[in-house]
Amino acid sequence: MYELNRVRLFCVGPRGARYTDVTLDLSGVGQIIAGQGSLSSTTVRRPSPYSLLLLENGGGKSVLLKLLFSVVLPGRRNAVGGSAAVMEKFVLGDDAAHVVLEWMHVRTGDRVITGKTLQRRRSGSAADRLAEHWWSLRPHHGVEIETLPFTADGRRLRLEGFREALQEIDRAAPITQLTWVGAEVGAWADHLRDTGIEPDLFGIQRRMNADEGDAASAFKFKSSREFVEWLLKIVLDAEDAVSVAGNFDIYARTVGDRHAMLLERDFAAGAVAALRPVADAHERHRAARTSRESAVHDGTALLLRVRAREAAEAESTQRLRQLAKDAAATATAREGDRDRARDVVNETRRQTFVLERADAQEAHDQAKAGRDAADADLRGWALADLIERKTAAEQKSARLAEQITQAERDARPALDARDRAAGALLSKLHAEAAAARDERDRRNELAAARLGNAAELDKEGRQALVEVEQQRAEQKAIMKEVANSRAKVEAAVTAGLLAAGQGVAEAASEAQETARIVAERIKQGEQAHHGGDSSAGM
């Protein structure tokens, strides 16, 4: 005997009370199923013995009953609560509607799923617009009521696609035991009886719910004849009309043999009392046999799963071995590539280091050359001041000499008489000027000789240059006095203030006096210069 365990309604029902995807779970709350073997690791309980569904009017209670009874009571005449045409309102558009019932055996805990799939035909007569197909299977880890292939790749499957999906699952796992009856109403009723689900019991329930759950009128009969006909219809096979008369004959003979039957009853009562232990033993044997059959069934299912697992593991092992071989070959090739790449990288680094070293050496040489050039420039700039001053002094002396020569050249016509009168004075003056120039050249040579030690004697050189400048200033002043004297002589000769004889004597006297003064000053300058040299040498 089976009890309803779970219900799943998918894409079925009228627009006002439509079940998009609803599962009613009644499992795991009943009594523990007795006789469970050790192969089962968890305790299996029977479904709920009583269930109460509370919904408002129009909530879908009648729709739910119609859908449930349409699975176990096939045929349009067995529709609950009206004509079978109402089922066409439960299927909208081209979608396939599914009503699935999961049952559990009250003794073994075995489960079976029965289902009905409805779909509108795209062509056909108005009276045959709805296709109804019935099917059943045994659930397992590969397919359960919640994993039925109603959809694929995000789209809903039509009836043919759903059947092909179930057949594919059955081919992959034979323990599914798929039975696709199709639209054969009689074949489906026989299949339910063979499975252990009695449609006639649900026929009584259908009569009780013929009019929105009005069970009171289900057993009201107008006459005893109507009751007898109903009873015979339920108890006896409607296809065997001959057996009804035979049953009545047997009943008449039984009434006639009542006395003998009473004796037999007493004998049977005594026999029953005597055979009660045998009956108890038979019940225990039957329970043990049921447990054995359940264990054998569980063992068979376990064996099939183990074999399937073994085949899958063997295939996975073979695949893993092949992958390991491929990985080893790939690793060997990758190691060779890695070694070659490492050699290339090392050679590239070596060449890079060589180039970088050459660049660094070149940069070092350039920096060294730049440093030497900078040192030379620095030394040159250190001497440039002294050289510039020397050059300026030479240029100034040359200009002075040129000016003197030019002045003498300009005054030559007027000074011819004076030169004759003052020849001695001029010769002496020229001698003094030559001596001054020699002294200047000597001092210049001495300054040039001292330029080599300018770095060490910079301070002393600067002091010497100051003294030279002072001497040059004194020389310039002397030359200026000579020029003034010449101008005075020329002015006096031009003005006629001095006679020729008188002018020479006085001019000689003045020249001697001037030469003496110049000699003293030059001597003083030399002494001062020699004193500066001696201090610089110290």
SSE diagram, text form:
Blueprint: E1 2-12, E2 19-25, H1 61-72, E3 97-105, E4 111-120, E5 130-137, E6 151-152, E7 155-156, H2 159-172, E8 179-182, H3 185-195, H4 199-208, H5 224-235, H6 242-256, H7 258-410, H8 412-421, H9 423-450, H10 458-495, H11 500-537
Antiparallel strand pairs: 1-2, 1-3, 3-4, 4-5, 5-8, 6-7
What sort of overall outline do the alpha carbons produce when their principal axes are compared? Answer: rod-shaped
Q: Determine the strand fraction and express it as a percent band.
A: 5-15%
Q: How much is the average pLDDT?
A: 79
- Radius of gyration over all CA atoms, rounded: 71 Å
Order of helical and strand elements? EEHEEEEEHEHHHHHHHHH
Strand order of the largest sheet: 2-1-3-4-5-8
List unreliable stretches of 5+ residues: 212-216
CATH architecture of the largest domain: 3-Layer(aba) Sandwich
Terminal CA distance reads: 139 Å
- Which structural category fits the helices and strands? alpha+beta
Output the CATH class name of the largest domain.
Alpha Beta
CATH topology of the largest domain: N-terminal domain of mukB
Q: How many structural units, i.e. domains? A: 4
* Count of individual beta strands: 8
How much helicity do the residues have?
55-70%
> What's the total helix number?
11
Q: How is the main sheet built?
A: 6 strands, antiparallel
